[in-house]
Each structure stands twice: as structure tokens, then as C-alpha cells.
Amino acid sequence: MSRILTKLLWLPVAGAGFLACSSSGSGPNAPASSSGSGTSCANDALLNVKLGPLAPATLPLTKAGDKGALQFVLVDPMTPNPPSQDANSWTLQVLDGTGKGLMDATLSFPNDKAHGADANPWMPKMGHGSVTPMATNNGDGTYTIKNLYFTMPGVWQLTVNAQSPSASATDSTMLSFCVP
């Protein structure tokens, strides 16, 4: 079994949002693994980028909302880091237009039917999704996202909607990442 080196690298790619990828092999241009021992998103056509061996992300990672009204920040803890098959748990901070934590926001995870997603999270290359996660308000402007369940390695997308308690600010973002 080959040793899999992983790193979480977040890049904005064609509006897709955060991107995390993995690669198997030993060099920066190692070929994608085709065995059951791992996977590579490095050469995935969806990504349109080629990345080498990667390792866990340094948090926090910030992504502006689609409307620019809110920001979404992935913070510690992220369990596991990088994301993996089966159960994952993330902590997401939602910031308002002034950069302050948005207290008591409502988070939801809608299906992105406009892009063919019948579930959320969604695996675009394979055309299937997983169980919709749940968000718990931590009372400090952060939200724990639980039940992030990824059934197989590869590129996954998670669409997150956030609405302020007064409904004066709403925004959404898509987080794209790779499960090694």
C-alpha cells in the first residue's frame, strides 16, 4: 500500500469556494492513485489545477459570501483535519459586514439544484450527495457543523446559507474540498 501524503489547501477556484486536495505518491507531480488505498483530487477536471502532495490546513480560513454581506471562517476545531471519509465536524464562524461575529444566525444547507445537486454535501464528479449536516449555535458567533458524512474520497461541495436574526443580512457560500 502506498503512503498517502495529504495537505489541505484552500483556493478560490472558478467561484467554487474553498478547495482542499490530496495526492498520493512522493513528489510534487506524483500521479493520481487508482488503487483503493487512496485518491487524488490533484488532477480532477473539476478543479482545473494540478497540485502536489499536501498536508493539514492551518486555520482559520476565510471565504466571502456570494453577496459580500457576510464572511464564512473555518476555525479550529476541524475534526479530522484534513476532512476524511465517514463523520466530520467543523466549526464555522460567520462575520457580519463589520467583521464581528454574527450571533444567533440561522444556518442551513440547501440542495443546489441549479448546479444539479440533489443533496448537500454534494460530490459533483460522481453525481451524488450525502446526509444533510446540522449546525449548532455555540453562542459566540461560531457554529459547529456536525454530521458531515462523506461516503468516499474525492471532491465534495458544501453550500452554507446564513441569515442574521433580524433577517437584515443573508448570504451563502460554497465550500469545495477534497476528501483523501
How would you describe the overall organization of this protein?
By secondary structure, the protein is mainly beta. The chain has one domain: Immunoglobulin-like (Sandwich). The chain contains no helices and 12 strands. The N terminus is likely disordered.
Q: What shape does the CA trace take?
A: globular
Number of domains: 1
CATH topology: Immunoglobulin-like
CATH superfamily: Immunoglobulins
Q: What is the highest CATH level, the class? A: Mainly Beta
**Rg result:** 16 Å
Number of strands: 12
Mean of the pLDDT scores? 74
Going by CATH, the architecture would be: Sandwich
Strand order of the largest sheet: 3-4-5-10-9
Q: What is the chain-wise order of helices and strands?
A: EEEEEEEEEEEE
The largest sheet is: 5 strands, antiparallel
What structural class do you assign from the helix and strand content? mainly beta
Low-confidence stretches: 1-39, 45-54
Beta-strand residue fraction: 35-45%
